[in-house]
Protein 1
Amino acid sequence: MLKILFLLLMSGGIPVSIAMAGASLIYLFWTQSSPPFVVIHRMVSGIDSFPLLAVPFFILAGNLMNNAGITNRIYNYALALVGWMKGGLGHVNVVGSVVFAGMSGTAIADAAGLGTIEIKAMKDHGYSTEFAVGVTAASATLGPIIPPSLPFVIYGMMANVSVGSLFLAGILPGALMAILMMVTVAYFAHKNNWGSDVKFEWPRVFKALAETAVVIGWPIGVWGLVTWLETPPQLTVFVALGLLFIADKVFNFQAVLPIMTPVLLIGGMTTGVFTPTEGAIAACVWAIILGFFWYRTLHFKMFVKICLDTVETTATVMFIVAAASIFGWMLTATGVTAAISEWVLGFTQEPWKFLLLANLLMLFVGCFLEPTAAITILVPILVPICQKLGIDLVHFGLVMVLNLMIGLLHPPMGMVLFVLARVAKLSVERTTAAILPWLFPLLGSLIVITYVPSLVLWLPKKFF
């Protein structure tokens, strides 16, 4: 009956979060199995979690980066690095999303932030609007895969899994997805005989490569000093950051300091300097330093607006989590999750078959539910089955998030689809058709990530 009430409310056009809470409340009134006050109690306890404190801070950090002129720097860095290749701006789109993913943590922020710049630039260089929208939509899915990631925080809290492990697990799959997308761009460039979009110039390319080397070499150098020379960790990091700011001033780097956001975040978590929640606060501090004091692109009035936008977004996310908490608890209390688990285990005991069925289910659910709501509903149902079948929950978390990100590209509820349709001034039908060819690299990545768990788990096992 609970499921029927939920579906009836959903079919009436009621928002998902209100449908979940409303169905639970009506069910309790109808059956009188528990006092209605249980709904409020379970909703409050569902968001009374220390790891969830990371959510507003990651949202704030992403908003600060997005409003501090960082997107233009990322675009120029990617243009210098790969713009000289055939189909250059397509490759720029992918590389830019890889970098921006390390700051925003959401697909929608990636699509709305970089997407506005990239689609306009691609149209100005003669690319079709459909191709520009397709590659932008596909690359936006990297936002929640490459750390930091808001869906990983929600999943980690719901499944009782280390958020730091989830962040590390997303690095190699994110690189795989980016490579497959760039291969797809190269295919279209060869098919349509596209050339490059900027002239190959050694100084420009060398500077971009030097920035990449600095970002890769900085954490290695710090780790080497702390490990081999046994220098004080905090002092070493502060001195190394000071040298980084000096180098940025001398060489006028485009994106070294913004790209350092995920490096500092993951480095701090893997070395135990801070928890993911504290890391989210550190990311906000880093964004404030860059926006207010280094690039001087933020001012107090803009900061107040960013904070208000963050409060609005956080309230939406937290209400979804709270509503899904009572709904998930009701599913468990009424035996729905146990019944589903018994049915699935009676149907198959083989992990690969379960993963196939779970992928189909999550792809379907992702087309209708916002990722936060989908995670909070699916985790209580699917995680117990994973535990019985011996499937690693870090691996399954990445599979779940990728499925739901692909769902964001589809009607009827695909938020990235609607954002890009508005940005590109295309109809939803044309936007959907533009995205379809890009499902091949995304689904190819999903298959590899699902059935090659070592790709996902190698880094987490190294550090955790």
Note: The mean pLDDT is 83.
Protein 2
Amino acid sequence: MSEDTTLPASPIHPQTVVAIAWMVLASLVAVTTHGMIRHVATTDMHPFQVTFFYNLFTIAIIVPLVVRGGVGVLRTRRHGMMFVRAVLHLSSMLLFFVGLTLMPLATASALTFLAPLFAVLLAAIFLREGFTPRRVVALIIGFSGMLIIVRPDPASLDQGALVLVGAALLWGAVLVIIKVLSRTESSATTTAWMALMMAPLALLPAIPYWAPPSLYQLGWLALAGVLGAFAQWAMTQALKTGSTNAVMPIDFLRLVWGALIGLAVFDEIPDIFTWLGGAVIFGSSVWLTWRERQVNLKEQVD
């Protein structure tokens, strides 16, 4: 009788399991927050006013952290870039919240996957990182996925889809600025300045649409603000605990959660084009992230 020489499968590292769990939780909480925001935006509160209160409640979370960490966390010489980041971030959020009221939740989640691809495109242009063959291929495939979802018809362009693509483009620009700021500033500093700048800025576009908010609306937005901050923290924990290659594919669950919440709460059924296009966009983004990391590791070894 011959001996079985098959090697046992390598177990998944417990740390990777924890990282994946954090990412699953982050994706679920983030999309749940989007559902809350959409709900409030359908109760006669304009999305611009929703954006203001969302950022106001985020400040309520950030300020105690700043106080506990000391005013030193606010020390920076890059106030101009911090301001540009806040303006772009706010503009992206305004468009995204408007888009949530115009498109199914799953479609909105799928189109957010475009942001990393826009970041690659903008970094290649403005940071002169260049267009390598792998980047060109990923961009072509990713933007093809966008066309699958949007299915553009020159005779009747979908306003909601255009708004969400614009939000993803602006968020891609924010990702580029964050990359530049990370060279000299800590994550705590950039996060603190983002929160402190965005709430006052968000008041300006909200004023023309202002209506006295109800306690019901404020309660939902307070919860959304807390959960939104937690989702960002959970994603940070996931990326800190596990490798990007293991964690980022889990982010595709945002499309799944969007479909489930959209069906359960808003009676939305995403079509096959949303699933297909979302998978194409997400796949190209993850593949490019993996390839870039492999190349960077090889360059460090060499």
Note: Residues 6-10 have pLDDT under 50 and may be disordered.
Protein 3
Amino acid sequence: MKGDFIVSEEEKNERFDRVIANHLTSLTRSHIKTLIDNGDILLNDKMVKAGEKVKFGQVISYNFEDLLPLNVQPEEDVDFDIVYEDEYLLVINKPQGLVVHPCSSTKNGTLVNGLLYRIKDLSGINGVLRPGIVHRLDKNTSGLMLVAKNDFAHKILAEQIKNKICKRKYIALCHGIFKDDEGEIKTYLERSKKDRTKIAVSNKGKLAITDYKVIKRFTNMTLVEFSLQTGRTHQIRVHCKMMNHSIVGDDVYGKAEKGLNGQLLHSYYISFIHPKTQEEMSFTIDLPSYFKEYLSIII
């Protein structure tokens, strides 16, 4: 769905989200807030908060995928591993190439389809297309993800991610040689105006902070551990591109690599406080075989 409209005289001084709701009547309040937070709905081409008071003559533009009017069906043949499970949550290992939830371009065969087949109860906070999904991984990023079985667990886990209590670490193989052994990357990110499927570094948008630590340097590549202080869309991939160290195999922010089906980026560690027991829990997962095989070639 793409378009724009102008704030009328009658709408001036209204909240940004309320004006949107008046025009895009098919959207729920929570969906509107998500779209605003993601930069999919802009005020005069700028990201603003949902409560921003609008002015007469301002332009509200939107560009986002329509929610699918479908009932997501359970599917047996979706490949993912359950690392941990109890009555409140799951920790799963998502393989490269698996889309997390249905969208206009991928209507089935997603992680959500597989979860619905294997798990009886999932939280409903994110609606019918994203049951249980607390946070996402890109299609071609592999590794650990949290899934909530009920709304109680979902709310607490989401708050832990927001407040940086939940820790997530990734391993990536990047082009070029990192000069410093460790550091912090701090920028603002927003949707690219040239290509809305991409994220771009900007002087506005959402604050994005990534910590990095060099694991090993090769002849013309560097194996790096990344830790997220914030969890923005494509954050690590965009930060790597910004430093001229795009992730090997990233055909969106770098270049495709022969023999690879996507970026060598793996979520290998996650820790959080259990929403019910208050126990601190942590999990690690080994690199996938294709990642190891590529490393063995360049050593």
Note: The helical segments are 16-23, 29-37, 111-118, 151-162, 235-242, 289-298.
